[in-house]
Amino acid sequence: MKKKIVVAGLIxxxxxxxxxxxxxxxxxxxxxxxxxxxxxxxxDAANQALNEIIASPLLAHPQAAxxxxxxxxxxxxxxxxxxxIDTDQLTKKIRVGLLQSGKFITTTxxxxxxxxxxxxxxxxxxxxSKLMNQATVKKNGTVISPDFSLSGKIIxxxxxxxxxxxxxxxxxxxxxxxxxxxxxxxxxxxxxSKKGSNDSVTW
Length: 203
Description:
Elements: H1 2-20, H2 39-55, E1 70-80, H3 88-101, E2 104-106, H4 119-122, E3 148-160, E4 165-178, E5 183-197
Pfam families: LpoB
Organism: Shewanella sedimentimangrovi
Protein name: Penicillin-binding protein activator LpoB
């Protein structure tokens, strides 16, 4: 019986110590830095890109005063790093910021690998459905084609400085292409450099 009590006590202590070692990190904290890409790195790159796009006179809609907005599609953002990255972490923040700025709306009906949201085309398959009120079914020829495409690349370059330390450079490269002409109306590159121990990993 005593052994069971001791074992139970040790398990409880371990669980409590595990809970006590976990804590929230303040959103804008600069105390914790990893050699890999963090939430803060994506935020910094996205905010810089967002501010430049919003400030660019070349990207001002000619009917902006009347509520005119350009339509943007998200193309391919290539991950050329040693990490498993969901590039939506970068593009989503840019999309949200552009929508809130009033300059762009993102289409989810068009994407490099097909529609982000297939419901736009799915609802049009209901045009012959006897179940649906046909007056409410969305018609063909109403989906708006994008004006711009957002594409990019995230690059990682790692170099040893000496026997004990290394330098990891990351580059966030983004392009906004005007789809009527194929011209890049805006491009941005945001480097991030991190120095750390050779024992540190970036994934």
